[in-house]
Specification:
This is Sarcospan. With 213 residues, the chain is mainly alpha-helical. The protein has a domain of 129 residues. It is 72% helix and 7% strand. The radius of gyration is 25 Å and the shape is elongated.
Length: 213
């Protein structure tokens, strides 16, 4: 039995807390944000069939949801100090890599939606044959025309699409920050808690025994 106040015991308890409490919080946030992004993406796709996949970033939300599920799986695995089981190491590595992938996907989603939102603020739109046709510069006959199919009312389409784009930017930005913090915490948990707290402690104890002998 280990006495109270043993530094090794305290460090292991700190490792256990770092390994369980933070991933649970991050997994819950990722699940909520990923679900929101996915639902908004499919709602945007239902507004007009001509919207591109990059403008309806449900794919970013799906990736973040998968990351959260891996986080929940990691919480179900019994804790082993210093990652002594291959399953624990594999799940942690998958969570780290998928969080990095989710970070990249959310940043791309923010970039695409921000670009589309800036374009829509400069659009001049007219309803023509059950479609909404928008131009950046009506005075230029060679200006590119953006066509939104299945839109009988340009006013409602542009207002709803602007709202959805803003929400996508906010949710994806928060999801990117959560994935970044998850990657940082997993890196800290791996390289600043286990190796410093567990691996080097027996070395100092061995040196003390050698000096006594």
């Amino acid at each position: 039995k280990k006495a109270k106040g043993d530094p090794k015991t305290d460090q292991e308890e700190e490792s256990r807390t770092c390994g369980c409490r933070f991933p649970l919080l991050f997994a819950l946030l990722q699940l909520a944000l990923g679900t929101s992004v996915t639902v908004l993406g499919f709602l945007m796709a239902g507004i007009s069939s001509s919207l591109l996949v990059r403008d309806t970033p449900y794919w970013a939300g799906i990736i973040v949801c998968v990351v959260s599920l891996v986080g929940f799986v990691m919480l179900c695995i019994s804790y082993q100090p210093d990652e002594k089981t291959c399953v624990q190491f594999t799940v942690k590595l998958m969570y780290f890599l998928l969080s990095a992938l989710g970070l990249v996907a959310c940043v791309l989603a923010v970039a695409f939606t921000a670009h589309h939102y800036l374009q829509m603020t400069k659009f001049t739109c007219d309803t023509i044959l059950e479609s909404c046709q928008c131009k950046l510069d009506t005075a230029d006959p060679l200006s590119r025309t953006f066509i939104y199919q299945d839109a009988a009312d340009c006013g409602s389409l542009t207002s709803m699409l602007n709202l959805y784009l803003l929400l996508q930017m906010v949710f994806n930005l928060i999801a990117a920050l959560v994935c970044l913090l998850a990657c940082f915490m997993m890196w800290k948990h791996r390289y600043q808690v286990f190796y410093v707290g567990v691996r080097f402690y027996p070395l100092t104890a061995t040196e003390g025994q050698q000096q006594k002998v």
